[in-house]
Amino acid sequence: MTDDWNDYADGWDDNSDVKLYATQAFAALDAHVDMRGKNWQSSRILDFGCGTGLLTEKIAPHVMEVIAVDTSDKMIAILKEKNLCNVRAVHGDVLTGDIRDVGDWFSDFDLICASSVCGFLPDYSGAVTALAGLLRRGGQFVQWDWQSSGNDGFGLTEPQMRESLKAAHLSSIRVEQVFEIEADAQAMPVLMGVGVRHTD
Question: pLDDT tens, 133-159?
Answer without folding.
Answer: 999 999 999 999 999 976 666 799 999
